[in-house]
Design a protein that fits this description.
Layout (H helix, E strand, L loop, with lengths): L1 H6 L13 H13 L9 E6 L2 H10 L5 H4 L2 E7 L1 H34 L3 E2 L7 H7 L9 E9 L4
Antiparallel strand pairs: 1-2, 2-4, 3-4
The structure holds flavin mononucleotide (FMN).
The site of flavin mononucleotide has 9 residues, from loops.
């Protein structure tokens, strides 16, 4: 574990080489092991490899172009209503954010363990990210983090 922690650092430049489904599955498996408040998993994840959507995400992230350059971008959402149904305002305002955050943390660390690298991106316009996914999300979903991942060029 400590090796993985020590290896993890923010990488913002990637090789064009794609990420295999097998490696993505390892990352999704890691996400599934993440704890969540009451086991409710009040978070959702989009796995994005489509170039146009990645470019729109980069624009939503105030022009952080490495978001579009990465072969895959994971988008972590908090789902407030799922947590609020059991925990009221604490679930809506806090637990769902924590559920999404710990899922993203597990994903980043597993990505590193699988030989990839990435960078947590928290600087983006919430409304701009929501607009990209408007047909697939519920209105209360909140984007918490973008995680562009790929093989490091640095
Ligand atoms: C909550 C959060 C938000 C961040 N947002 C961004 C971001 O929008 N763009 C970026 O390039 N790095 C972002 N980072 C990465 C940090 O800049 C980076 O983790 C920090 O400089 C420490 O470097 P290291 O990750 O290599 O240890 C973010 C990190 C965290 C935890």
């Amino acid at each position: 574990m400590l090796d993985v922690f020590n290896k993890r650092h923010s990488v913002r430049s990637f090789q064009p080489r794609g990420v295999t489904m097998e490696t993505l599955a390892e990352i999704l498996d890691a996400i599934n092991t993440a704890p969540s408040a009451g086991g409710l998993k009040a978070r959702e994840i989009h796995v994005i490899a489509d170039g146009e959507i990645k470019r729109r995400l980069a624009r939503a992230a105030f022009g952080q172009d490495f978001v579009a350059q990465a072969p895959v971008v994971l988008v972590f959402w908090a789902v407030p209503s799922r947590s609020a149904a059991k925990y009221g305002s604490r679930g809506r305002d806090l637990y769902c954010i924590q559920d999404a955050t710990i899922a993203a943390s597990f994903a980043w660390l597993q990505a590193v363990a699988s030989g990839l690298a990435g960078c947590w991106v928290g600087a983006f316009g919430d409304d701009e990210v929501k607009a990209i996914f408007r047909k697939e999300i519920q209105s209360d979903w909140r984007p918490v983090a973008l995680l562009p991942i790929g093989y490091p060029a640095e």
